[in-house]
TrEMBL record:
PANTHER family documented for this protein: NUCLEAR TRANSPORT FACTOR 2 (NTF2) FAMILY PROTEIN
Boundaries of every SnoaL-like domain copy: 9-134
Name used for this protein in its record: DUF4440 domain-containing protein
Domain of life: Bacteria
Originating species: Streptomyces amritsarensis
Length: 147
């Protein structure tokens, strides 16, 4: 494993999030493998196959006016032709405003993600994305579990 493999995977991982931020469906689609892929968005069932996965991103992009990802805790491991990236997605997003052309209220969310890449002749491509929400104290019940 060379440093250049890790750098290449980091670049593709970054490109994935940048395509989401720009709402660039073509760029996002080009980052995925052509064959069997899978995706789990927070709170969604497992999506399998290129058509189903890419439809989910088209749906998210069409319903999201603004989204920005701040990635933290990013770790990259490369073994042969497979790479694993884990990170925390600090997401800031907003939808259309109720009235007028201004952006709706911004909402912050924390998601931990695992992105799996495979090396191809065209470079590293996404094989699987799995996002899971991070529960914050405000999301938990205030009840004492011992009572």
């Amino acid at each position: 494993m060379s440093r250049t493999d890790i750098e290449a995977v980091e670049e593709v991982n970054t490109a994935f999030y940048e395509a989401m931020e720009r709402g660039d469906f073509d760029a996002l689609s080009a980052l995925w493998l052509e064959d069997e892929i899978s995706c789990v968005h927070p709170g969604w069932p497992v999506l399998s196959g290129r058509g189903e996965v890419l439809r989910s991103y088209a749906l998210i992009m069409s319903h999201t006016e603004y989204i920005q990802f701040f990635l933290t805790d990013t770790k990259v491991a490369v073994i042969a032709d497979t790479a694993l990236v884990t990170c925390t997605e600090n997401i800031l997003s907003g939808g259309p405003a109720e009235d007028g052309g201004e952006l709706g209220p911004l909402v912050g969310q924390l998601v931990v993600a695992t992105n799996v890449f495979r090396r191809t002749s065209e470079g590293w491509r996404l094989w699987s994305h799995h996002g899971s929400p991070v529960l914050t104290e405000s999301d938990e019940d205030d009840e004492d579990p011992s009572s």
